[in-house]
Amino acid sequence: MRGSLRSFSGIVLGAMLAFIVFAPGLQAGPAAQEKFTLPFDAQWGKTALPAGDYTLSIDHFTSNGAIRLSRGTQAVAIFLPEIFDYTQNQSKNGELVFVRHNGVATVRALRLPNAGTFYFPLPKELKTLTAEQPQMLEVVSLEATGE
Question: E strands of the chain, at which residues?
Fold first, then answer.
């Protein structure tokens, strides 16, 4: 009797641990999914983005929320924000904000209405240059997919 009780306890404990480990991955879906058309070539972190149609999915609205970018059915990259500011949610529609310098557009922020703004790090050379001269910003609108 005692051996079967230990065996049962071990099974229950194993099931609880498995649930704790795998439950976060069983979410119903992304917190947000947006589509956009990039009318110019750009950089997002170390990833070069050619002009074209993209879809981005956000798993949750925090500083450690992952942003997955795809082009059609092909995954392009996963980005982690530098900062998430939930107080910066005044934009009427979702939008990507680019900093343009010397002909290169780099993603700086992802603004989502009623959620907040994700900020992404700029390349080291651009951080130095933007401190010395004004930034040229460019904005690309997002379209919520409703998925």
Answer: 32-38, 42-44, 47-49, 52-58, 67-71, 74-79, 83-85, 95-101, 104-112, 116-119, 136-141, 143-144
- Closest by CA position to 13, among listed 23, 5, 25: 5
Confidence (pTM): 0.69
pLDDT tens, residue by residue, 77-135: 999 999 998 877 666 788 999 988 777 889 999 998 888 899 998 877 665 554 444 55
Cβ-in-10-Å burial (0-12, 13-18, 19+) of 84 comes to: buried
* Alpha carbon distance 90, 115 (integer Å): 9
Min mean pLDDT across 22-26, 27-31, 48-52, 81-85 is at 22-26
Residue carrying the six token digits 């997919």:
145
Tokens of 144: 């919520």
| Token pair recorded at residue 124 | 């080291």
